[in-house]
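Retro notes - structure team

What went well: the batch runner handled both jobs without manual restarts.
What didn't: labels got mixed up in the shared folder, which is why I'm recording both outputs here explicitly, each with its sequence directly above its C-alpha cells.

Job 1
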Amino acid sequence: MLPPGAGARVRAHRLEVTAFGPFAGTADVDFDALSDGGLFLIHGQTGAGKTSVLDAVCFALYGQVAGARNAARRLRSDHAPAAVGPRVVLEVTLRGRRLRITRSPAWQRPKKRGAGTTSEQAKVLVEEYTGGAWIGRATRLDEAGDFIGGLLGMTADQFCQVVMLPQGEFAAFLRAGAEERHKVLERLFATEIFTRVEAWLAERRAATRRAADELRAAADSIADRVAEAAGADRPGAERPAGERVDGGGRVDSGGGPPGEVLVAWATELAGQLGAASAVTRSLRAESAVALESARAAAQHGRALADRQRRHADALRRREILETKAAERAELAAALDAAARADRVMPLLRAVGERAAVADAAGRRAAAARAAAAHLLQPPAPSPESGSGSGSASAQAAGASGAAVSAEVLAAAERARRDEMAGLDRLRGDAARLRAVGTEIERARQAGERLDQEEAAVSAALVELPARVGALRDQLAAADRQAAARPGAVAAVDDAGRRVDAAERRDALVGELAAAEAAHHAAVDAAQERRDRLQDLRQARLDGMAAVLASDLAAGEPCRVCGSPDHPTPAEALGVIPTDDDEDRAEAAYERAQADREEAAARVAELGAELDAARDLAGDRTVDALTADLAAAVAELDAIDAAVADADRLAAELDAAEARLDAARDERDEIVRRLTENATRLAELAAESDRLRTRLDEARGADPSIEARVDRLGREADQLHAAVEAVRGAATAVQELADARAAAERAATGAGFGSAEQAVKAALPDGVRAEHLARLRALDAEEAAVGALLADPELAGAAGEPPPDLPALEAALAAAERHHTAVVSAADRAVQRG
C-alpha cells in the first residue's frame, strides 16, 4: 500500500486487473472511493490476492513486481481461459499529472491455426488526461520506463523498498534471530548510510584533535619568536613539557603553560617597549618635516627655471615670425585670387564642353544630310496611297545637296508615313491569309489522323470481345487459389519471432558469460583496492613518529614533548604515505566498488533477458527455426503470387471491358469529325483565293505588303534622324554662344579683365593645399607664441633671479639620508616592541 509520505507524488485512482495472479477474470478497485475515509486496509485470507493487488500497481508502473515473485516470471493467472491475455490498467496521478497505464506481460497464447502456443510480447500504453481527453504518451517499453521513472524519481527497487510494504521480507524479519533481523532491516531501510555517518563522525573527531594539537604547537612557536625579538625568557621555558596519552592512544602536550599566561606575558613586554617606540616616533616625525621642506624647495626651483626657459624661447620665436610677414601677404593674395577664379572656372569648362558638343552635332548633321539625299526623290505611289503626297514630292524634288533644310527632310518623312497609314489596313488581310494557310494544313493533317484512328478502332472492335471472355475465366481460377493467405501470414510472423529469439538467446549466452567474468574481475579489483587503502592507513600510523622527527631541528623544541634536545629521533623504515596517497587510494576503492555494483546489475539484466529469449525460442536451434521460417515464407510467396495474379487479371479485365466500350464510342465520334473536317477544308480554300488576289494588287513591286510597309518605315526613320541631327546642330551652336557670353560676364564680375586672367589666377589642388598648409602653420605659430608671452606665470618668472639648482638638490639629498637613518632606527624599535 502507499504510505502517507508518498501521497504528494503518487496517488492511485483506479486499478483494473485481468487474468493476473489469482484473478482469473477482471477485477476493478476504486481507490478514490476508498481514500475518501483517509487510510484503508487490504485484508483477506491467504491466497485471496492481497499481495497481487500491490504487485499489479508495481507492474503497471515498472513492468515488474516486488521481491522474489519477479524472478518467477509467471504473472498470468493459471485459472484464466486460455485465450484471455493478462492485463493491468492503472489510473494514477504522478507529480500532478493524471495518467492511465495499460500494461501486459509476455505470455503464451494458443495458436489461431493448428495446435500449440505462440508467444505474445510484453506491451504497454501510457496515456495522459489533458484537455478533457486521453492523449497517448508512450507505446514502447523503454519510452514508458523513462517517462514514468522521470516522474517518480526512483527505480523499481527503490519504489518497492520505500513506497510499497514488502510483506514477504517482513515475514522473514518476524521469524529471524537478532543477527538476521539486522540484515533484513539493512535491506529494507538501507541503514548502511548511518554506518557511513558514524565512521565520518569518528574521523572528524580525530581530525579536530589533530587541529587542536597543531594550534597549541603554533602558539608555542609564536611565543618563542616573541621572546627572541624582545630578548626575554618565555614562561615555562625552564622546564620541558611532558607528554601524556589519552584514551584513544593519541599523544597530547600537557606540560606547557596555558594560553592565558602567554597572552599576559606578551602584553607586559609590549608595555615595556612602548616608551622606546614613542621616542623613535618623535624623531621620525621631525626628520619627515625637514625632508618635506627640502623636497618642496627643490621642486620650486626646478619649476621656476623651466618657466624662465619657456619665456626666453617664446621671445626668439616671435623675432623669427616678424621676418616672414611678406611671405604671409603673398600667400594670402594668391589664395584670394584663386578663390575668385574658382567662381569663373565652371563657366569656362562649360564653354569647352559646349564647343565639343557643337562640333560633334555639326558632323552628325552633315553625315545625316548626305545619307538621306537619295531619299528626297518622290516614292512610287501604291494603289492605297492616294494623291495626297503630290505636293510633298514636289518640294522634295526641289531640294538639292548639303543645303537641304530640316523642313524639306521633314516633308519627305511625312509623305512616307502617310503612305504607311494607307497600307496598314491591308496588314490584317495578310495575317488572315497566313492563318488560313495554317488552318488548311492542320485540317488536312487532322483528316489523315482521323483516317488512321478509324482503321485502328475498327480492328480493336474485332479483337476485344474474345479477350474479355478469356480474362473472366482466368480471374475466377486465381480467386480460388488466394483464399489461404491470412493463415500463411500468421505462420511467417510466428516463425520470424522465434528465429529472432533463438539468435538473441545464443548471443546472450556468450554475453552473460563475459558479464559474469567481468563481475568476478570487478569483485577482485574492489577487494584489492580495499586492501591497498587499509595498508596505506596502517603505514601512515606506523610512520607518524618518523614524520614528526623529520621536522626537528637542533635547539628547537619538539612539537610533541617540548624538549630542545633530540637524542634519538625516530627514523622511517620505508616510504611513508601522505594524505594525498590515502585520498587517491580511497577514490580508487570507491570507483572499483561502483564498477562492481554496475557489473552485478549487468549480470542480472542479461540473465533476465536470456530467460525471456528461452521462453520464446525453446531449445530448438537457430538453423531449425530458420528452416521453419523459410518453409512458411515459401508458402506465403506462392499464395502472394496467386493474389498478385488475381489482382493483375482483375485489372486487365476492367481495362479490356473499358477499352471495348470506349472503342465503340470512339468510332462514332471519329466518323462525325471526318465529316466536319471535309466541310471546313472547302470553306478555307475559297477564303484563301479571295485574300491572295486582293493583296497581290496592293503590294506593287515589293514582295509583300509587310515588306513594303517595312521599307517605308525604315526610310521614314532615317529621314526623321536627319531632321533631328540638323536641328540639334543649330541648338548646339546657339548654346555655345550663350556659354561664352556667360563666362565673360562672370570673369568681369570676379574682378578680372578677361576670362584668360581668371584661368591664370586659378591654382591646382596640390599648390592650393601647400599654400593653405603654410599659411595655417604661420598662424598657429603666431598664436602659440602670443599665448606663451601672455602667460602671467612666465612673465613673472622672467623678472625673478635664476635659482641655484645644484645647492637645492644637495640639500634634498642630505635630508633624505638623515630621514632614512631615523626610520631605520624606529623600525628596529617597533620590531622589538
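Job 2
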Amino acid sequence: MIEDAPDTDDARLREDVRLLGGLLGETLISQEGRELYEQVERIRAVTKTARADGGKAADTLSGLLSALPAGTMVSLARAFSHFLGLANIAEQHHQHRRVRESRAWEIGDTISSLLSRNIDADAVRAMVEHMDVGLVITAHPTEIRRRTLTQKYHRIASLLDRRDHPGLSDRDKAGLEQALRREIVAIWESDEIRREPPTPLDEARSGLVVIEQSIWNVLPGVLRNLDAALEAYCGQGLSLDAAPVRFGSWIGGDRDGNPNVTPEITQRACLMARSMAADLYWREIDELRRELSMVRANDTVNQLARNAHEPYRVLLRQLQDRLESTRRWLEAKLNNRHPEELDVIDSIDQIEETLRICYDSLHECGAGIVANGRLLDVIRCCRCFGLALVRLDIRQEASRHTGALDEITRYLGLGSYESWDEARRLEFLERELQGRRPLIPESFEGSGAVAEVLATFRVLANIPGESLGAYVISMASEASDVLAVELLQRECGMQAPLPVVPLFERVEHLSGSRAVMERLFSIDWYRERSGLYQEVMIGYSDSAKDAGQLSAAWGLYLAQEQLTDFAREHGVSLKLFHGRGGTVARGGIPARDAIRSLPPGSVNGRLRVTEQGEVVQAKYGLADTAAETLTTYITSVLETSLASPPQPKAEWREAMDQMSRVAMHSYRDLVQHNKRFLDYFQAATPEAELAKLNIGSRPARRKPGRDIAHLRAIPWIFAWSQTRLMLPAWLGVGYGLKVVSEDNMDHLHEMESEWPFFAATLDAIEMVLAKTDLDVAFQYDQRLVPQDLRHFGQDLRGRFERVYDVVLKVTRHKSPLEHEPVTQRSINLRNPYTDPLNLLQVELLARIRRGDNSQVQDALLITVNGIAAGMRNTG
C-alpha cells in the first residue's frame, strides 16, 4: 500500500506517506494474514486500471467485490479507510511543516502590507484592540470517527513531528518507527464503529476536548505573535484588555429539531464547561506558583500577602484554593449531589484581578520580563476564554416560540396568537414588553412542546450569565420572532436576558432581513433594549439546499450588504454570524477566501462563525493546525476590515442577478417541483441508511415525512458526497453561467479577475468539480436505482458536463484546480483508495435493501468513514 505516494518534488511528504502505508501493509499481514494484504493490493491495482480505461476494469472490480462474503468486505473496507486516514495525517503534518518554515511571521506580513497601502499604524492597532472574532463549535453528524481513533491519529501526528527533529540518531529513528507501528496496530485492533449513538453530552465532551488539548495551549502563542507584530510595526503591543478571539458552542444548547437536547442537558453542558475551565485555570495557577518565587513586591501585593517572604506564591495559593473549591463544587453538581457551601469562583474577574495585581507589581519591581511570560498568557486566557471556556448559545426554531405564545393567549382567552398577522402580533408583544404585569399565570402548564420551551427559559434564568452566549432563532422571518423570545425570557424570570439573534436561512428570508431589522429598530422599547447593538446570523446550509449554491451565495451577499447599510444608516453596531459548514454547499470554503470575499464594510473587526462537524478536528485537532487557523482568522479580519474588497460594478450585479435567477429556477425545477426526484435521491444515495447509523445525536429530519423540505441540509449534502456526485454544490450553476457567458464571456472573465466574491465562488465550485466522479456515481445508479428512475442520473451527468465546461471557460483553466497543484495531487492520491470503498458501499447497500444485515451494517459504516476521509470535507 505504498506505491501511490503523491507525485511531487517534496521528498518528505512522499517519505511520510510511504512509511505509514508500509506500516499499515505490515499490520495487515501480521494481524490478518498475507491473503488480505494481497487482496487489497489486487483491488487497488484494478482500481488504478479502471481509472485509466474505465469500462471493463470497473465492471471487473464491481464483480470481484460483489462475490465477497460480508466479513471480508469489512476487512477490505477497514484497510482502505485506514490508509486514507493515515494519508490525511501525513498531508496535514506536511502542510504545517511548510507553514512553520515559510510563513512564521504571517501576522507581521499582514500588518506590513496594510501599512504599505498607506493605512495608518494607529488605525491598525485600534482595529486589533477592538477586534471581536467569535468561533462557535457545533456538533453535526459529519465528524463520524470515534474519539478513540482521533486520539490515536493525534499521537501519530506527534510522532511524525518528532521524526522531523534534526540530529536524530538511527536508534531514535528506529524507536519512533516502532512507536508508529504500535499505534497503527492499535488502530487496526480497535473498533472504529460507534455501537451507541452519541448523546448531546458526549458531543459536548468532544467539543471541550478540542479546547483543552489544543486551542487553550496555542492561543497564548498566537497572541504573543500578534503582540510582537504590533510592537514592531505600530510601536505599541496588544493591551491586556484585548480579546481578539473568543469561543462559543452550540453543543448542548442547539435544540432545533433535536428532542435529545433537554433543559437538563443544557444545564449540564454549562457545568461541564465550567468544570473544565476551573481545572485548566487550576493547572495554570499551579505552574505560576512554581515560577513566581520573587520576593520583591509592591505595597498592594505585600499587604494582601501579609508581608509573606514569597508574596506572589501566597496570593496564587489563595486563588488556587478557591479554584480547588470550585472544582469540588462543580463535581458535586455534575454528580447530582447537593454541594456543600464553598468559596466558589463565579466570575472570571475574581481570577483576573489577582493575576493583574501580580502583573502590575512585577512590572513596578523591575521584573516585567517575568510578568510578560506565563502570567500574561493566563491573563489573556481569562479575557478570551472567560469563566467557562465557551459561552453556550441556545438555538430553537421560530415556530416553537409562536406555538408557546399561541397556547398562552388561548389559555387567557385572548385569541390565537398564531393566527394573528404580523402587525397584530407586534402590537401585542410591544404592549406586553412595556407592561409590568406577568403574562403567564402560575396555573398555566402547557402541552409537552410548550412546556419544554418554557422549561428551557427557566433553566437559563438560573445559569450564570458568563456561561451563556446568545439565543439564536432558526428559520426567523419576522420582527415578531425576535420580540417573542424577548417576552418569553422576561416571563420566565431571566433577569439578564440573552441577546436574541435571528437566523435568516432561506433565500426569501435573507432578502427580507433588512426589513425585519428596520421594523425592530422602529420600536422604542427594542432600541433601548438592544443598546443599538445587533447580531444577525445568516445560514449557508439551508439557503443552498433551498435555492442552489450560486443563488444562495448571491442571496447571502446581498443580505449582508443590506444589513450593513441598515446598520450604518441607523447607528447600529452590527455583528454578522456566519453559519458555515464543512462543504462548499454549506459555505465551507477556506477561511481566508471566505472573509476576503465578504461585502465591503460588513466585517469592521467583528465576525462570528460556526465551526461544524469534521471541520473542528481538521482546523483545531492538532496544535500547529489550530495556531494557523487562529492566525488566519485574525489576519483576514484585520485585512478585510481595513482594506475592504472593491464594490461590485453595476454590470457585475446585473450579471449575478441574471445568473442567480436562472440557476435557482433550474435547481428548484428539479429538486422541489419534480415529484419523482425524491424517489431517485433515496434510491441513488445512502440517505435512508445514514439516518439509521450511530453518527450524531440529532435526527436527520426536522419533522417526520419524506419531503426534502423537512430533511436537514447536512444529510442532504452528506448523502450526495458519499456517492461522489456532490450535486448540491453545482446543480443549477451551469445554466446560470451559460446565460451570461453566451453573450459576454469577457464580462465574466473581468468579474473572476477583479471581484473576490465571484472568484471565491468559482474556486469553490472548481473544488467540487475536481472531487466529483461521474463513473463512481454511475455505479450507484446501475446497482441501486430502478429502471424507471435512471433517467434522472443520465440527466444529472449531462448537467454536470455542462457545468464542468462552462466553469473552466470562465476560469480559463484546462482542468479543475490547475492553479492548486497540491490539492489536485491530494485528490489523485486518494482516488485509488476511495473508489473501492464506493464500490463496496454500492454492494453493501444492495444487500441491505435485499434484507441481508449480517455484518453488512458494520461494513457500510466503515465505508462511510472511509469515503468521508477520502473526500476530506463531507457535510
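One thing worth noting from job 2: Residues 768 and 850 are 32 Å apart (CA to CA).
We'll revisit the folder naming next retro.
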